[in-house]
Amino acid sequence: VLIYMNIFIFGTLMDKALLEIVLGRKVELVSATLKDYGVFKVMDADYPVMIKSVGLVANGIILNELTKMDILRTDFYEHIFDYFLKPVQVLSKEVLIDTQVYMPSKMIPRLEEPWSLKDWQEVSGERTHGFAKKVMTKFGVLSVDEMKKDIKSYF
Q1: pLDDT tens digits for 88-98?
Q2: DSSP strand E in 17-94: where?
Q3: pTM over 0.85
Q4: How far, in whole angstroms, is CA 3 from its chain's centroid?
Q5: Do 39 and 110 meet the contact criterion of CB atoms below 8 Å apart?
Q6: pLDDT at 155 over 70
Q7: What Cα–Cα distance (Å) separates residue 107 from each residue in 43, 89, 120?
Q8: Averaged confidence pLDDT in the chain
Q9: Any residues with CB less than 8 A from the CB of 116 and at least 6 apart, and which?
Q10: pLDDT, tens only, 128-154
């Protein structure tokens, strides 16, 4: 019996090409929002962080019908950056959905400036696609800890 899961994504994985590299397959993107959170630029990095921010709304995507393998693949990619799944409730198609989102395990220095997918795609998209292709060839071969030791060589 296949058990499907869903996750809410708000950052670089909203880029369809990057998401397909990480998942190893195509997937339907369904828009969703998370109330009282904002998505901000991270200091000295090109990926974002989502922070509890009363009154703001984080726009993102809910990925439905993810398999255990899909989650293992996204975990592998996200755990390299110390982002781990945490439960949240998002709104999609006017329905509240219990799901999970990758959040940092420790405080990340952020800028006040909101993060933009479009800006990221223009500046860092292609480079990140290349990085992700290299990283995902190590899925099932190296552990996350082994990847972290040598991560700079993948850029």
Answers
A1: 999 999 999 99
A2: 30-42, 48-66, 83-92
A3: yes
A4: 21
A5: no
A6: no
A7: 12, 22, 22
A8: 93
A9: none
A10: 999 999 999 999 999 999 998 888 777
Quote the pLDDT of residue 111: 87
Classify each residue of 48-60 as buried b or exposed e, where b means 16 or more C-beta atoms within 10 Å of its C-beta.
bbbbeeeebebeb
Q: Which two tokens stand for residue 109?
A: 């220095």
Round the CA-based radius of gyration of the chain to a whole number and report it. Answer: 15
- Helix or strand or coil: residue 111? strand
Structure tokens at 27: 């997937």
* Whole-angstrom distance, CA of residue 58 vs CA of residue 11: 10
Pair 58, 49: CB distance under 8 Å: no
C-beta separation of 100 from 87 below 8 A: yes
